[in-house]
């Protein structure tokens, strides 16, 4: 009955029933997600899949956000999911490490564009789809992850299917079948981390979930107990049997309310150190040649996951807390540009990197760090971060999310468009025609700004 | 190194290196597969997915076999994979219960049609793709199956990716990435058996595998050890570590040489009984009103899997050995038409069904049965089947495969086309231009013959 109950909850959803808090967080999720999707849109992995869409003659139904090309709804879902995850800079539900927007928003938006849905439709479908995905994630976590599944891809398709079912106003049986078709089609092994196939996972989940809902809308049948059956999704892909997580207290609060956003374009364990050095620099504006050393004290995982000292590529820089701190010292941020090959190999940043050292303290929490800067003249500056920015205790403010949006979208769209998009998203529930939204995501030239 | 070695073997393949036995069996596989694909092409599940392809504006690149519509290569792979498995009448590698043609041939043929490949290209790509899929299947079987995976879908995508990589002459690294992208994207839970989603599995595998190869051809990257890694395909989807099955003695013989074909459109455990009653009827042409009872002696699984006595639908008929025997008594076959609702509910067949009884003998093998017919006048006819037709010891002859092709394609294409297709497939290695092949699979009208 679990899948049946879930489907009945999904179909009983309505925009009016959803509280303001969830709507507010869905808008923040969209701003963050759209920024990183546009920011990732010039990545070579996106161009490669776009070339495939051209080989199969995809029809121009929906936008590749941040680009001038249009492709069919399914490929738009795939491409926008890919671009939004390629920089590992999207949002996270920390309890299961599910990135909710990357598989759900691309499906919702490409469908909304072609089918001319409203802003309220988009917000409702995203919240309901995320709710379904997050709850299935809770039902399979953690063994699912340890078995080797990348939960954002494997569970994301169910979220996309639930979202499109919501948007299409499918009935309970159709929604049940949409979830079943998506459940039989999970994408994503953790082995793919570090390759283009990692961001392919949420993209493919968005595509699979949308296809599932489109098929169910035509009357295609599936199991009626795809999640809870003996040979169903939960048992085949995890050792858990936490089925009650899927439906318990549905509608009382929404999982999207717990969403968190990355202020920095690297793994969360580096964030307290980056937060600390930025705090010091904002206050004292030190020059690198004044610095004798910088000492970071943090949780053991900082060294285990990000202890790389010798690095030559931007991707490696994400796994070097030494680089993260050195780059943030200069730039007062750690965005996409701080993890380019150029930045990692800059001689000034390399020089400062050599002055950074790491002390592990097992009593520290993961979101905690102390940063100490010692100058040649003997002065010392210390900043202690109790809860890094972006953690659940210290969420990013609206202003910080807007600044991130402006930063990550770079020169792909101009400042005027950025401002207008920020405003549009803040008032998305009042927008009946999303044509302007999609037009604003489109650059004038595709190839001249990468 | 397993995936790397597999990829190097795939790229080193050539038509000339493949022995005659494998080529011969690939042609028999194609004849059988094409028949059931055309036979299934009017099924409502096919029409529903076709409707989705129209919603997304799919471009006319490749044929939906048995229909007049053309769709893009990816959707053609999906649709032809679906139609060829919807009647559960396709081929089987009995060792792992992998149905090799259903995920591999649709990918190969839709690519071949649009890219104007030759008959030799098709045969080589199918044999290599099947080899890859069958060996990965051996490496995960049996725990993969018991965990809940439908192996034809979950492993089939790797076969389709290997086949398209072969056809595109991808290099070792590209092939490695194609396999990685397909491996991260398995489709198919056994929970879906009995719904339209079951035949969706090989169709989606064909689509996923083709997409993977098209992406890899563009330079999209993936893991280089997707099969054997700690968080890779084999460990995430099974409890086996039989990696050596994937590459051992590659090229010495081909798995396709072990392919088997169903003479009857029901589960294999019913086949010895059907074979037996047909043998008696071919010899004695008994009338139903002469029969007092028919007694089937067989393996315990016959009762466990097909012991349904009261049935009202064609699908249930497949799980009733009583119906199988009664229908075969009248028709001298048990094809698609014998498992329609009409046939199951025919009063004559129902009457005879009540005269059929079952005796279980634990010493019998699964491909063995004894059929005894007792007439009212006291005469008894006994036929013992040691190895049912279609089993590995008693394979279907070319003539029987041709008769099956003619039967399952029904009135969708006319007799002249059937004869010409049988001839074309027998000489496929001599065909440079497959345009005629695809034209022959196309009926004059789409909707008037279902």
Describe this structure in words.
2 copies of one chain form a homodimer. Chain A has 450 residues and is α+β, with helices and mostly antiparallel strands. In chain A, strand 1 (62-63) and strand 2 form a beta hairpin. Chain A has 21 helices and 6 strands. The termini of chain A are far apart. The longest helix of chain A is centred in the first third of the chain and has 22 residues, at 119-140. In chain A, strands 4-3-5-6 form a 4-stranded mixed β-sheet. Helices cover 51% and strands 7% of the residues of chain A. At the A-B interface, helix 3, helix 10, helix 11 and helix 12 of A face helix 3, helix 10, helix 11 and helix 12 of B. Chains A, B: It holds the Pfam family MmgE_PrpD_N. Chains A, B: Residues 264-429 form the MmgE/PrpD C-terminal domain. Chains A, B: InterPro entries: MmgE/PrpD_sf (IPR036148), MmgE/PrpD_sf_1 (IPR042183), MmgE/PrpD_sf_2 (IPR042188), MmgE_PrpD (IPR005656), MmgE_PrpD_C (IPR045337), MmgE_PrpD_N (IPR045336). Chains A, B: Belongs to the PrpD family.
Features:
homodimer, 450 residues, 2-methylcitrate dehydratase PrpD, 60s Ribosomal Protein L30, Chain: A, 2 domains, four-stranded mixed β-sheet, two-stranded antiparallel sheet, 21 helices, globular, disordered C terminus
């Amino acid at each position: 009955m679990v899948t049946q109950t879930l489907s009945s909850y999904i179909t009983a959803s309505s925009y009016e029933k959803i509280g303001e808090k969830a709507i507010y967080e869905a808008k923040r999720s969209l701003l963050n997600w759209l920024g990183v999707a546009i920011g990732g849109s010039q990545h070579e992995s996106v161009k490669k899949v776009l070339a495939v869409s051209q080989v199969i003659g995809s029809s121009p139904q929906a936008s590749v956000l941040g680009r001038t090309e249009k492709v069919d709804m399914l490929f738009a879902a795939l491409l926008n999911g890919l671009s939004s995850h390629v920089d590992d800079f999207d949002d996270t539900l920390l309890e299961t490490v599910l990135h909710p927007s990357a598989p759900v928003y691309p499906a919702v938006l490409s469908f909304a564009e072609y089918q001319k849905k409203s802003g309220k439709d988009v917000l409702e479908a995203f919240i309901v789809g995320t709710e379904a995905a997050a709850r299935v994630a809770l039902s399979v976590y953690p063994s699912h992850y340890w078995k080797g599944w990348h939960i954002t891809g494997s569970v994301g398709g169910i979220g996309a299917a639930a979202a499109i079912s919501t948007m299409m106003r499918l009935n309970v049986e159709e929604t049940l079948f949409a979830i079943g078709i998506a459940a039989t089609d999970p994408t994503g092994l953790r082995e793919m981390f570090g390759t283009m196939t990692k961001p392919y996972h949420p993209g493919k989940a968005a595509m699979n979930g949308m296809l599932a809902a489109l098929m169910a809308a035509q009357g295609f049948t599936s199991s009626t107990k795809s999640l809870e059956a003996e040979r169903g999704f939960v048992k085949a892909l995890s050792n858990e049997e936490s089925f009650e997580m899927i439906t318990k207290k549905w509608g009382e609060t929404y999982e999207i309310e717990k969403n968190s956003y990355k202020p920095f374009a690297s793994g969360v364990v580096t964030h307290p150190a980056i937060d600390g050095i930025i705090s010091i620099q904002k206050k004292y504006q030190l020059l690198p040649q004044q610095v004798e050393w910088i000492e970071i004290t943090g949780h053991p995982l900082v060294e285990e996951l990000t202890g790389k000292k010798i690095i030559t590529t931007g991707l490696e820089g994400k796994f070097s807390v030494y680089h993260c701190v050195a780059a943030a010292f200069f730039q007062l941020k750690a965005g996409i540009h701080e993890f380019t090959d150029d930045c990692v190999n800059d001689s000034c940043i390399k020089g400062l990197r050599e002055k950074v050292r790491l002390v592990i303290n097992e009593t520290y929490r993961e979101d905690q760090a102390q940063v100490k800067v010692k100058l040649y003249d003997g002065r010392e500056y210390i900043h202690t971060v109790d809860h890094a920015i972006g953690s659940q205790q210290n969420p990013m403010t609206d202003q910080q999310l807007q600044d991130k949006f402006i930063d990550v979208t770079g020169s792909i769209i101009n400042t005027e468009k950025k401002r207008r998009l920020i405003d549009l998203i803040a008032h998305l529930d009042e927008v009946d025609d999303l044509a302007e939204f999609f037009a604003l995501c489109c650059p004038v030239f595709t190839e001249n700004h990468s």
